[in-house]
Amino acid sequence: MMDKEPTSWMSDAEISAHLRAHDVTPTQQRVDIARILFARPQHLSADQVLSIVNQETQLVSKATIYNTLNLFARKGLVREVIVDPSKVFYDSNVSDHHHFYNVDSGELMDIDSQALKLDQLPTLPEGTEADGVDIIIRVRSRG
Questions:
Q1: What does the domain layout of the chain look like in residue ranges?
Q2: For the whole model, what pTM was predicted?
Q3: Nearest to 60 by CA among 93, 89, 85, 35
Q4: Which GO molecular function terms does the record list (predicted)?
Q5: Euclidean distance between CA atoms 70 and 80, whole angstroms
Q6: Residue 66 phi, psi (nearest 5)
């Protein structure tokens, strides 16, 4: 049976089951963070998650947020999107897709994987195989 995809209507019990299905122990703080991330497809920074969690539920430390987001990324619950070394987003859409990043607004937007065609990859180093391709197209306002 396929694990149910997270949505905003999932109860805490369903979120807990989803976390367990990915080998994540569902502590209250992890469930609170997951509820925010899985409310809809979105791209949030750790600071945004921290702000929302602290407004809507209980006070949690920045370290707890970072540790939980890193755990969720390692377990495939979210995708880590590194726009530049100082700007990291956590994407609740884990399907294959790429991104536009607006350097003026800081907004990250999804690009369907079918909308971007890669005809050929460069020759990979010997003894390796491609594990994925993540493309970020940086855009800015004209003028």
A1: 12-90, 95-139
A2: 0.83
A3: 35
A4: DNA-binding transcription factor activity; transcription cis-regulatory region binding; zinc ion binding
A5: 8
A6: -60, -45
Q: pLDDT of 24-72, one tens digit each? A: 999 999 999 999 999 888 999 999 999 999 998 878 999 999 999 999 9
For residue 137, pLDDT over 90 is answered with yes
- As a whole number of angstroms, the distance between CA 67 and CA 75 comes to 12
CATH architecture designation of domain 12-90:
Orthogonal Bundle (1.10)
DSSP class of residue 40 equals S
**Helices 62-74 and 46-56, packing angle to 10 deg:** 120
Q: How far is CA 131 from CA 54, 90, 96, 124, 128, in A?
A: 36, 19, 12, 11, 9
Cα–Cα distance for residue pair 131/115, rounded to 1 Å: 20
